[in-house]
Inverse folding.
């Protein structure tokens, strides 16, 4: 293991060689599309479990309501 003779030179070298690329200008904002649409939480009509869905109804674990039972 070697000792550091000049901490300032080591810091200057790391800043010069390992500096990440510049960030874009903060004044220029580009719209970022969402990764996915987040639906609101709904309560299942069959089991009262919370699930995300664009429309109210039943969760995927509950069977579909039988039309003859109505």
């Amino acid at each position: 293991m070697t000792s550091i003779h000049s901490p300032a030179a080591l810091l200057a070298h790391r800043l010069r060689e390992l500096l990440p690329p510049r960030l874009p200008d903060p004044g220029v904002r580009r719209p970022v599309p969402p990764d996915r649409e987040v639906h609101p939480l709904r309560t299942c009509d069959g089991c009262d479990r919370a699930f995300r869905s664009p429309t109210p109804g039943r969760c995927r674990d509950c069977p579909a309501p039988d039309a003859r039972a109505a």
Observations:
- The two ends are 81 Å apart (CA to CA).
